[in-house]
Amino acid sequence: MIRETAGRIRPADKDIMEKARQRQESLAKPPGSLGGLEEISIRVAGMTGRVINRIERGCVAVFCADNGVAAEGVASAPQSVTMAQTVNFTRRLTGVGALAESFGSELLIVDMGVKDPIPAELYCSEPLEDTHKIVNRRIRLAKGETGNIATGPAMTREEAEASLAAGVEMADAIRDAGYDIMGIGEMGIGNTTTSAAVLSAVTGLTSEETVGRGGGVNDEGFRRKKEIVDFAAAEYVNRGGILKSSEDPAEDMVEALARMGGFDLCAMTGAYLGAAANRMPVVIDGYISVVAALAARVINPDAADYMIASHKSWEKGYSRAVEILGLKPFLALDMRLGEGSGCPVAFRIIRGACDVMANMATFSEAAINDEYLEEIRAKDSYRR
Q1: What's the rounded Cα separation, in Å, for the pair 172 and 55?
Q2: What is the pLDDT of residues 221-250, one digit of tens each?
Q3: Angle in degrees, 0-180, between the axes of helices 342-359 and 14-26, rounded to the nearest 10
Q4: Nearest residue to 282 (alpha-carbon basis) of 161, 176, 185
Q5: Is the pTM of this model over 0.85?
Q6: Which of 15, 141, 245, 352 has a 20 to 30 Å separation from 233 between CA atoms?
């Protein structure tokens, strides 16, 4: 299914992007004066194949799962927090929940493998059937969490593929429900460790460059975290990383996700691929979200054309991942919560960028003679 989904992804429409750029140049303003907002609207045009876009409905898919590596003391919070916050998403009592309510976005909450039991009455069977309930897509029905990557694989290849497929399913559900944009978030104690291991496998970087403190782990936990990441990713790091050394990056990426990822990380990767296959703009949140985005890009490089980076995460490794994606986050708010919390904020900015393209008058419509801009445009004087 993943190869089929990846095979449906096409590059952003460059001809439409050029038309969008020409429209931006015709709007009644100095060239480039809206900066990144102009680039956002041009990129969205390339994603959708339309110069004019209305971004009115946004949905954040939040994938929740526990990670067996938490047993190694690599996280500051107990695993019980995963279950508590998964339940609190339904009540909109979390960071992303409060922001979604404030900015008029929705949540799609998915249990991929939460360790502690969730009350049965909080589950629904179909995505978006009730956005205040949880979609049950648990991979390991009894145990819930993944294996401990300090001692063995996180999951089987079949489990990784099932997790990826669940992410594609959620992207399709968001499209079918009529949303214009989606974001990718997560909840899972220990997932900065699994994400750092995957980032090391992709890039060939050691833990010194991919491991941060996550939610604030103590010195011993930080030392152990780096040790585990170097152990789990050693095979890939020793050969320079998947990006540099792989003859079949997509195959190696799925294997790496199975070896050292999480059910949440795999599903997020699938959701990025699904969004790209559906030509839907998809917003990256923080560190775990950007590593999943990078994994999707390894499986099909064109998937990155549909990604928009929201905020710059404090977590070590984020900057390297977003650089490889060729993206530039436009929010600098020192955010480091995760959950998809950057997405509702970003949705509004993206909506504004597209509304400028749609609603702002051109020089002709505003009855302004723009001949005075000819020299500025010729020399790019405004930008300099």
Answers
A1: 17
A2: 899 999 999 999 999 999 999 999 999 999
A3: 70
A4: 185
A5: yes
A6: 141
Residue carrying structure tokens 């996180």: 154
Pairwise CA distance, residues 299 & 310, whole Å: 22
> 3-state SS of the chain: helix, strand, coil percent to 5?
55, 10, 35
List the one residue out of 343, 340, 345 whose CA is nearest residue 187: 340
User: Alpha-carbon torsion 44, 48, 53, 59, what sign?
Assistant: negative
Residues annotated catalytic, as ranges:
339
Rg (CA), the chain: 21
Tokens of 287: 């560190």
Residue 61: name the closest of 273, 226, 234, 217 by CA: 273
Contact 118, 86 (CB under 8 A): yes
List, for residues 208-217, the tens digit of each pLDDT value.
999 998 877 8
Which ranges of the chain would DSSP assign to H, the alpha helix? 2-7, 14-26, 35-48, 80-90, 95-103, 157-176, 191-203, 207-210, 219-232, 234-238, 242-245, 249-260, 263-277, 287-299, 318-325, 342-359, 374-379
Q: Say if residues 204 and 241 touch (Cβ distance below 8 Å).
A: yes
Q: 304: number of CA atoms within 13 Å, CB side?
A: 17
> pLDDT tens, 103-119?
999 999 999 999 999 99
pLDDT band at 382 (very low <50, low <70, confident <90, very high): low
Rounded distance between C-alpha atoms, residue 192 and residue 72, angstroms = 13
Q: What is the DSSP letter of 316?
A: T
State the amino acid at position 100 in one-letter form.
Answer: A
From 99, 145, 79, select the one nearest 338 (Cα to Cα).
Answer: 99
Q: How many residues make up the chain in this entry?
A: 384
From 104, 100, 172, 94, select the one nearest 135 (Cα to Cα): 172
